[in-house]
Specification:
By secondary structure, the protein is an alpha/beta fold. About 35% of the residues lie in helices and about 20% in strands.
Length: about 240
């Protein structure tokens, strides 16, 4: 939760209007949003019915909407659109970010946090090995994408008060015996589209090669853990 809380702490005075948790997932940040909302309506938006059911049980949202972020539109102009670790899955940010900014009420804020780890070995090696082992197929595999920081600045700073920063968080990862902690951490998120595109034997071969690379890039401690650096990009735009 730390990156999401850091993003929320960076939001200044909220404008009048609903608080939108865009890509709310299971509602983990619902209590923190409720504490900052000061009576504003809190709306959770997610494409997954299962995640929305969990968010509903948190009891922090005034309403929940099932929608694809690409197609979603608020019922009235929000004072805050808050999106923590969701928009990197959506893509087409050249169009998406100005669109979201245009939905805000006067004085409203768009607050976004996204992983920015694609160039690190933990993420890059999945793609480089896939292309080496299965040439030509990697282009068909969808993976999360984030634009270069300067592109967000060029795109959004003309629209209002824009702030952009990155933070590298260090996480202590532990995995079950026989697997590298970084592999277990990335295979169900970043690498999921890659692995889903492979046959069972291909998947096993790729994982073996990836594990070898991770032992070199992120040495495992005697207790089986790894201190794993993970970079995230943040920005806020107040219009």
């Amino acid at each position: 939760m730390r990156p999401g809380l850091d993003l929320l702490n960076a939001v200044g005075q909220m404008a009048a209007g609903d608080v939108i948790d865009l890509g709310c997932g299971n509602g983990q940040l619902g209590p923190a949003l409720r504490a900052r909302a000061e009576g504003r309506q809190i709306v959770g938006v997610d494409s997954s019915p299962a995640m929305l059911a969990k968010a509903r049980s948190a009891g922090c949202y005034d309403s929940l909407q099932q929608a694809d972020i690409r197609d979603w539109h608020p019922r009235r102009a929000p004072g805050l659109i808050f999106s923590n670790a969701a928009l990197h899955w959506v893509g087409e940010h050249e169009a998406l970010m100005p669109k979201l900014a245009g939905m805000l009420a006067r004085g409203g804020t768009l607050a976004v946090q996204m992983p920015h780890q694609n160039k690190a070995p933990s993420h890059r090696v999945w793609l480089s090995l896939s292309e080496e082992m299965f040439p030509g197929r990697v282009e068909k595999m969808g993976t999360p994408g984030v634009m270069a920081p300067q592109r967000y600045d060029e795109l959004l700073s003309p629209l209002g008060r824009f702030r952009l920063w990155e933070t590298e968080y260090f996480q202590r990862l532990v995995a079950e015996a026989g697997s590298h902690p970084v592999r277990r951490f990335t295979e169900s998120t970043y690498a999921r589209p890659v692995l889903d595109a492979l046959e069972t034997d291909e998947k096993a071969a790729l994982i073996r090669r990836y594990e070898e690379a991770m032992h070199a890039a992120y040495p495992v401690r005697a207790d089986g853990s790894v201190l794993f650096p993970f970079r995230r990009m943040f920005f806020t735009l107040t219009v």
